[in-house]
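Sharing a chain and its predicted structure for anyone who wants a worked example. Both blocks are below, sequence first, tokens second.
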Amino acid sequence: MDLFRSEVSEGEFRLKDILYTVTESCLGAHYENMELVLFPEVEAKTEEESVEYEMRYVRLYHNNGFCTHTGSFPELKGKKFVWTEEYNEDGEEAGFFYVQEHESVEEGTIEILEADTRKLTVRWSGKAVVGWSREYGDQVPFETIFTVEIPDKIVHCLDAFRSEEMKIDENTCLVLLNLEEFNQEVKRVSETRMWDDFNTVLRFRLTCGDRDYAGEVIFTNGKNHHELIMEPGCPRKIRFRNVDYNLRAGYEMFSFEVDG
């Protein structure tokens, strides 16, 4: 990748020839079939009066996440994730860049410099659309190094448009049992836009070793009002976090916390 030669130090963000100070960074993460999906984000500012006011704040983020094909955070150390264009072969975005407005990252590399169970240090470089002037138009190079804390709770997400089951670990699997019935209610509420009239049950099976345990999530008066009931004797503590969906766009994600 033909980037500028200057290097940045940790806590700095360079957009072509403008140097910013990183003011905030964060990391979203979840598991999909035992693999970590990451959502890094970094913000930076400059107080340099020589920089036009509208160019003094930048934000770089991953809106939909990317799969690391890695099962733990320490394993990420030294790994690189490369985009030669806006999307990779898995349809994952290279990211988005905001300075004037939200624009695409046209190519990029996310490298994990350090990783343990508490923090990641990330180098993110590439080229992005800025659209401000001839000098800051398309293919504007950027580079930043920042450290983010790993979230305390990492949920397990099931992408229902890919599969109706997901692996929690080598001995635990969750399977949705009535997705078609559940989605009839999703479609009805989406068409009527009566969001508080969402009343249905999501049934699933949790397999732990050689035993199956039945569970259900009961939704009452909206998708955000729910109760999970699990068959007695299940050795895993499971909580239902939420469901997000847009069936027309081919998106439906169920999120669970699983302990024990």
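Comments welcome. The two ends are 44 Å apart (CA to CA).
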